[in-house]
Amino acid sequence: MKPNLDLDAELAALPTCSRAELRQRWTSLTGKPAPKVSAALMRMALGAELQTHVYGGLSSRTEQRLTKAAGMSEAGATPPRQRLMREWKGVLHTVTIEADETIRWQGKRWRSLSEVARAITGTRWSGPAFFGLKQKKAA
Questions:
Q1: Rounded to two decimals, what is the model's pTM?
Q2: b/e for 68-78, b at 16 or more Cβ within 10 A?
Q3: What is the pLDDT of residue 80?
Q4: What helix, strand, coil percent values describe the chain, rounded to 5?
Q5: Taking 90 as the threshold, does the pLDDT of residue 61 lie above it?
């Protein structure tokens, strides 16, 4: 256990943190930009990161087994090429783009990411923009 962090106090403080405080805490803890998720999901992710920081992460063997299991969508299937995640109105949506470029969401095959984004939101969206694949242009 790392002595520089009072885990109980850190976890107890998360519910009172603003979204900006949560994002800043994420960046200082992980060294990475904060993901674009709700404050509730950020609190859960931060709680997990804090515990990992104090107690350590998974063993390399467990990580390998989880990675292998996550990559297999069906028994004997090839691993996906890419997995995209986006939270929308409190629901986490996961889209899988397989090695053959097939797009899958909620067990169905889709023609494009934009079609999936439209199904999720009910409005016209650029699929790549909705899933964060497009960089915003500087003004």
A1: 0.49
A2: eeeeeeeeeee
A3: 55
A4: 45, 15, 40
A5: no
pLDDT of residue 14: 93
* Bridge partners of residue 94, in order along the sequence: 85
CB 10 within 8 A of CB 28: no
Mean pLDDT of 26-48: 90
Q: Which two tokens stand for residue 68?
A: 């292998």
Is the CB of residue 27 less than 8 Å from the CB of residue 33? yes
Residue 121 contacts by C-beta under 8 Å, 6 or more apart in sequence? 88, 130
CA atoms within 13 A on the CB side of 12: 5
Q: Which of 15-29, 45-59, 104-118 has the least mean pLDDT?
A: 45-59
Q: What is the mean pLDDT of the chain?
A: 84
The helix (H) or strand (E) run that includes residue 108 is strand 108-110
Residues 95 and 131 sit within 8 Å (Cβ to Cβ) = yes
Q: Other CB atoms closer than 10 Å to residue 119's CB: what's the count?
A: 14
Give the residues across from 92 on adjacent strands: 87
